[in-house]
Amino acid sequence: MAEKASESSNSISLNTVDGKIFKVSPTIANQMQTIQSLIKAYDSSRVISLPHVNAFHLSKIIEYLEGKSATTVSAVKEFEAQFMKDLSLKQLKGLLIAVGYLKVNELLELMPKTVAKLIENKSVEFLRKFFGIVNDFTPSEEAKIREEIAWAFDGVDED
Amino acid sequence: MDLENSTPMLLQDDDQAMLDDLSSFLPSDLVIEILSILPVKSLIRFSYVSDSWNFLIFSSDDFLKKHLHRSITDSKFRHHHLLAEIKRNDFSGDMYCLSNSPKSLFDNPPPPQSPLSMILYDHPSIEFPRGTLIIGSCNGLICWVSKCDNCVHCLNPSTRVESMSPPLGRGLLNSTMFGFGYDNLSDSYKIIAIYKTMGEVYTLGSGIENRRKLEQSVPFAPTQWKDRDSGARFVSGALNWLAIRPDGTLVVVYVDIGHEKGGYFMLPSVIDENSILDSPCLWVLGGCLCFAYELGNSESTLWQMKEYGVSESWTKLLNFRFEDVGNICLSQYFPRPFFMFDNGEVLLRINKNGVFILYNTRDKSFKKVILQSDDVIWYQASTLIESLVSPC
């Protein structure tokens, strides 16, 4: 779908980390702050290389930006819900990195909500694994804190 | 989403390394954004994911304020709770409890005859001994004074941290009116005590010996309608009480908590028509000061001050006869507004046994809701928004 929009002469070429070239319309490109500032800094005819963003993630972002222009508020909500539901955990994490790097305004609002909902009832161990954070508490420190806030561990989902 | 569900698309080794080290590849403000919309209970648990998260959650003032702002402005009121005053049917004691988010109560209503615990937020109920005066609640804190120990107590029920002042001087409690609120000029929480028209200020955490006189006190003494109702309504940076002017007119007296100055303004003018109001009360609904009263033991009226301090902005929100909503009136249990949703619906307790109505202020329709029918009398409620604010 990205390629289809590419025929117009002022489309912008984006090169993903896995070597695929996407041509996107200025309307789509301008919704990504990082691309916007790169276009301003260079000229728009140049191919812009994107570290941290692979073809799958970029195609999802374009799919989102095209899809959320639905006509009604409820249609947009439904589209957003389905869009997020279709992602695996791995895809969600990858997309989060891509969105954080490209600074896609709308998704910077939607994705934190999706991630917050996902992790809200999760365990500390799930969180460490999800974000790749190393536990820097000593076992005795950790045991002490766990005891102090034992009530906050009620009702935690299984990982 | 399934953690192990790898996708058919090709993932390079680099990708996998990035995903395993997600936080290093995310801008820190994106992680903070995610955390700022979590409930307090989740944050308390995640405070020991790592040292830096612990610092962010417990020690960063910026994060605390961002989280509070997110909670206050959440369109689904997910972090709002009803701080409800309830009584056991056998009058064994008064207690306060925190309900689940008011929206979730109606989106997923508990089945009829549910026990009280079904609709409570998971903090245990807060029971107070006799002689406790609730001063108010603000930004997730509940503040009260106790005649038993003569101290000011403050509790954040979401973090379960509580503080207690040294004993107050003697004589402060009798017929003293109180208020509790946040002063954004000094970024602190203040307790105001008014005796007749004289006022004193005490800043939370500053040491009770540092309490001082109000620079400019209130023009008329706040009126105490009921023994235990001595707390002010905090809205738009000011504490508000009802008072009777020497000419007999009911007015609102206030103390601007930042400038520590008092004043007064008028109530809606229509109430002056020789009518005797039952149980006049101030409330805060939808972030605005509200004024409710009963007339002739048969009808209930609620006004909202759309723009704080501007008497011309009083707007009648609702007016109904008790019989029209099926209320068998017992004077102690006049209808009480509990919460206002952003679509203009007002939740009112209309009977003593868990019977509520959701009154639509736009088309004047209503529907009846029964929250539970344990041996509990719902008395009145205010809104508490969960926060990380420390009561110390």
UniProtKB/TrEMBL annotation, chain A:
Q: Report the source organism.
A: Lupinus albus (White lupine)
Give start and end of each SKP1 component POZ domain. Answer: 10-66
One GO BP annotation here? Answer: ubiquitin-dependent protein catabolic process
Q: Which GO terms describe its molecular function?
A: kinase activity
UniProt pathway annotation: Protein modification; protein ubiquitination
What does this gene product do? Involved in ubiquitination and subsequent proteasomal degradation of target proteins. Together with CUL1, RBX1 and a F-box protein, it forms a SCF E3 ubiquitin ligase complex. The functional specificity of this complex depends on the type of F-box protein. In the SCF complex, it serves as an adapter that links the F-box protein to CUL1.
Q: Which InterPro entries match?
A: SKP1 (IPR016897), SKP1-like (IPR001232), SKP1-like_dim_sf (IPR036296), SKP1/BTB/POZ_sf (IPR011333), Skp1_comp_dimer (IPR016072), Skp1_comp_POZ (IPR016073)
Family matches, as SMART domains: Skp1
Q: Name one Pfam family in it.
A: Skp1
Subunit structure as annotated in this protein's UniProt entry: Part of a SCF (SKP1-cullin-F-box) protein ligase complex.
Indicate what this protein is called per its UniProt record.
Answer: SKP1-like protein
Q: Which domain of life is it from?
A: Eukaryota
Family named by the database record = Belongs to the SKP1 family.
TrEMBL record, chain B:
Coiled coil where?
A: none
What Gene3D superfamilies has UniProt attached to this entry?
A: 1.20.1280.50
Give a Pfam family name: FBA_3
Matching SUPFAM superfamilies, A to Z? Answer: F-box domain
Q: What positions does the domain F-box occupy?
A: 26-67
Q: Which NCBIfam families match?
A: F_box_assoc_1
Its recorded name reads: Putative F-box domain-containing protein
Name the source organism.
Lupinus albus
Give the organism's phylogenetic lineage: Eukaryota, Viridiplantae, Streptophyta, Embryophyta, Tracheophyta
